[in-house]
Each structure stands twice: as C-alpha cells, then as structure tokens.
Amino acid sequence: MSDADLHEGLEDAPCLNRMKIMGALMNPIFQSKKRMIAAGLCTDSQYNAGEVELLDLMTEFYARQEGNDNVVVISVDATPNEWVDNDDDDDEDLTSPARRLAEGEWKKFRKSYKNFDTLPEVEPVDVLGGHDSEGQPKPSPILAIGPDQKRGKDLPSMCNHADYVGSRGYYDLTQFMIDHKRELPSLSNTFLGKLAPYATSESD
User: Fold this and answer.
1) Where are the alpha helices (DSSP H) in the chain?
2) Which 3 state secondary structure label does DSSP give 204?
3) Can you tell me the distance from the alpha carbon of 57 to that of 101, in angstroms, rounded to the nearest whole number?
4) What is the pLDDT of residues 21-45, one digit of tens each?
5) Which of 126, 182, 175, 159 is nearest to 26 (CA)?
6) Which residue ranges make up each domain of the chain?
7) What is the pTM (predicted TM-score) of this model?
8) Distance from chain centroid for Cα 152
C-alpha cells in the first residue's frame, strides 16, 4: 500500500475502490469500524457495503466446502477502549449454514485478531486523524502508522502482529493470511484469491 493509497480514504469519496475497502476491513491495524470512520478511511456506508461484499465472498467459500459444518470460535478477553464497535454482539443468526460460518469467522477475526491488546504500539511516522476540527494537533492521533515500538499480546494462533509490520510501518497482510489459512479459512481464501493481486509486499 502506497502513501497515496493510505490517504485516499481521507476524502469522502462516493465510490471508494471496493478492493481497497475490503482490504482495509481485513487490516488488523485499523481495528474497528468506529476507528476507520473517525480516521477518515471510509464513511459508514462505504464500510457497510464493503463488509456485506466481504461476507458474501466468505459465504461462497463455505458454500463450496463439503462436510465443513462448524467453525471453532476463539475469543480473548478484550480491554475496552474508545475504538471498540458497540454492535459486535448484535449480529443476526442467519439461516444459511454457509452464511453462519462466514459470520462466525468474521466475528472471530474482529474479536480475537483485531483486539486492541494484540496491536503493537508504533512510532507515528504517518498519522490519520491527527488534528481536531480547528486544525490543532491532538494529543494522540486516531490512527498511527510506523515501525513497532512495543509488541502487543500474542494472537490465538501464537503469532504476533508486530512480526508482520515492516520497517516503514506497513502491515504485510498477504503473509498474515498465508499464516492463518487454518484459523481463518474463508477470510484468507478471499484475500489471497481476490485481493492479494492488488496488494504490494507491504500490504494494507
């Protein structure tokens, strides 16, 4: 992801590239819908549309599988912070078995792999949401991109997000998805099959 790509969502574009919005949804560093919108990466409607399309692709993966009738949901205790979405526990119990599997995996990813405690502290080389409405610098930006300063907690897979952050601060989502094919089968299949061709080596 280039610096230009990082800032593309700062403008309220009515037609944000669907590949970019789905890639941003999969990026653990962006953490949550609330944080992405506050940082100017997307609007509420763009996030919702991207999430629906992503879940549709994940559902297609499960619909093609035979004999795969459940997903093991892994959860970790979350430390509340201002960027946690409030609607995480309000997901509908949809009737399609494939859709339920996709919803379950997506919820597992959001709860256990985008959890605040697992995210590294970084040196803020590039920031989003760093100024208030009057143009004054905020004490801390909404979102900072940069090299690791402190590792977060290990993931349920025993990997660590810090190991995927490069020297310029960009997250290698391609390698993350390769390493998590077993834990996140439909998400990794969707990214590697649909989105990876559009990503750089330091992907978002």
Assistant:
1) 3-8, 18-26, 33-38, 44-64, 97-108, 173-179, 185-190
2) coil
3) 12
4) 888 899 998 888 988 888 888 889 9
5) 175
6) 3-198
7) 0.71
8) 16
Closest CA relative to residue 186, chosen from 32, 24, 68: 68
Burial of 26 (0-12, 13-18, 19+ CB in 10 A): buried
Q: What CA–CA distance (Å, rounded) separates 135 from 197?
A: 37
Helix, coil or strand: residue 147: coil
Give 110-134 pLDDT, tens digit per residue: 999 998 899 888 776 565 554 455 5
Question: If you search the block for the tokens 């502290």, which residue do you land on?
Answer: 121
Q: Which of 10, 21, 6, 79 is nearest to 55 (CA)?
A: 21
Residues 8 and 20: their CA atoms lie apart, in Å, by 10
User: Residue 114 class from Cβ within 10 Å (0-12 exposed, 13-18 middle, 19+ buried)?
Assistant: buried
